[in-house]
Amino acid sequence: MRTFVLDSVGVLSYAGGLFIVAAGLTLVFGAMRLINIAHGSFYMLGAFLMTTIAGTSSGLRFWLALVAATAVVAAIGAVAEVCVMQRIYAKEHLTQLLATFALFLIIADVSLRAWGNQSRTVSVPGFADRKVQLAGATFPAYDLVIVAAALLTGIGLWALLTRTALGRQIRAAVEDPELLASGGTNLRLLRTGVFVLGAALAGLGGGVVAPQLAITPGMDAAIIVVAFIVTVIGGLGSIVGAALGALLIGLAQTLGTSYAPSWASSFTYLAMIAVLAVRPWGLLGTPER
Predict the structure, then answer these.
(1) pLDDT attached to residue 173
(2) Overall average pLDDT of the 39-51 stretch
(3) I want to staple 28 with a disulfide (CB 3.0 to 4.6 A). Which of 126, 198, 205, 241 is the partner?
(4) Could you give the CA distance from residue 289 to residue 285 in angstroms, rounded to a whole number?
(5) Alpha-helix residue ranges (DSSP H) falling in the chain
(6) For the domain bounded by 2-278, which CATH number is listed?
(7) Domain ranges of the chain
(8) Residue 281 class from Cβ within 10 Å (0-12 exposed, 13-18 middle, 19+ buried)?
(9) 126, 59 in Cβ contact below 8 A?
(10) SS (H, E, C) 40-74
(11) pLDDT per position as a tens digit, 226-269
């Protein structure tokens, strides 16, 4: 029971942080068919901004810093979308990859100059800076905070996409953007809003997991690979699929680390291969027409 509890909490905590990031990535691809390598950069910026704004402080300042970091990353995403992304939406995927990879390298270099190459830390907020005991297992209370943040993010996205006019427009943009534009919708403004939301989710993901990580340059490259795997497994454009993909990768990573540490990184790719062998379009994706 103790091992089961520890593994379950580990899976949910890892999957929760991963889902927040992957949800933004799959949302942007679903609405705009944009392959955004720079999504990992927004995640890294969120974490680094937390080290600057919150630092070793906790309590209310941590939560204010989380809001501020998410807002700053969203603003950076807006600038990137207007200056770069609007010029490549209609281009082929290779052009999108090259353009967003160039943005990825630029942000990485700017971050290195701004924060240096030393690892940084963020303090856990006061009320979560303790241990929780359950069925003989002891784990950090902050793991539950990450799970709660992922649940709130998922519920918020579900409400946005299914209960609001903006959500209906986003879903329509996934199905037929040309028809949506012909109906009078400002497609450029909608795309900007979706991209900013995706960047904000990446920044939020980086900020939420910051207390559990050593924040260093290079974390952008590490997260973007795993986030793309989650997005592909779940099905490009599917938020629920991203949640299922994050759980599957969290399970593979946690069990791999626990029972086969030297092969842990391989479990993530094996899980992706197993899913794509059965459903090449992902768990909840649909075949491209």
Answers:
(1) 72
(2) 95
(3) 198
(4) 12
(5) 2-32, 39-53, 60-83, 93-115, 142-163, 165-175, 177-182, 187-209, 219-234, 239-259, 264-278
(6) 1.10.3470
(7) 2-278
(8) middle
(9) yes
(10) HHHHHHHHHHHHHHCCCCCCHHHHHHHHHHHHHHH
(11) 999 999 999 877 889 999 999 999 998 888 887 888 887 788 88
| CB 24, CB 39: distance < 8 Å | yes
120 forms bridges with which residues in the sheet? 215
pLDDT value at residue 242: 92
In tens, the pLDDT along 68-87 reads: 999 999 999 999 999 999 88
* pLDDT, tens digit, 9 for 90 and up, residues 146-181: 999 999 999 999 999 888 888 888 877 766 667 777
CA distance 18 to 6: 18
Tokens 């450029």 belong to which residue? 188
Give the integer Cα–Cα distance in Å for 185 and 194: 14
Give the position of tokens 């720079």: 38
Beta partners for residue 138, in sequence order = 133
What tokens appear for 112 in the block? Answer: 């290195």
